[in-house]
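Here comes an entry:

___
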Amino acid sequence: MSTYLYGLVATSHPARVDGLTGVGAPPAQVRTLVAGDIVAIVSDAPEGLRAKRRDVLAHEDVLEKLCAQGATLPMRFGVVGEDDDAVVEEVSGRSEEYTDLLTRLTGQVEINVKATHHEDEVLRQVLLDDSDLRAYHERIQSDGGGSHEERIAFGEKVANAVEQRAAQDADVLIGHLSRLADRRHIGPPVGETFLNASFLVGAEEIQHFEEAVEALREQVDWLLDLRVRGPLPPYSFTEIHQPEPEIARPG
């Protein structure tokens, strides 16, 4: 039976997994494997594992429950070992590396912040801020909407202005929130989201961080939407080489 790996914790971690279930249908019972100074959090791996929403959420739920108990090194979704012995051998061989990283992550969590502009407001704002763009818009409007080429040119100018505004707003948000974080990781934009940033925050700073986000939200709610997720396991700050997932992606 293949073994599914959720994450790693130190032997000092409570690792309370009784009654906790993970991936699979029916959900597999989560259990632990001791590998030197590290405990691997695992379950039996279902056959034909796919990145289905239910299984992805189950993977995240296991890690979030472990993170609430102490420092947890999360694995990406879909990491599967040949069997329990193979997982123990792999983890034991890198026990020192994992222990060092868990020590650095003790007492810290990840908080993810995403920001999306309200489309009508950001368009209005870039026109207000750029007199040349506003004059160009007024000219083609007075000329019956302008030629096809002029409309295309105007659209490109607006898109560039919105992109510049997004970069400026992202810098401001990151600057404010970075003061309350030990580290930050800027991820790629997702859809209309212009900011996708993760912050490594000490447990004692979580409330202050959340209050800072709320204060920012009150200031910029007219222009953009701020969404916060966390506390989370430190997905973005696990600087280790992880085994490649062994999953079949939905077609």
Q: What stands out?
A: The mean pLDDT is 88. The first strand starts at residue 3 and ends at 10. The longest helix spans residues 148-178. The chain has two domains: 3-106, 110-235.
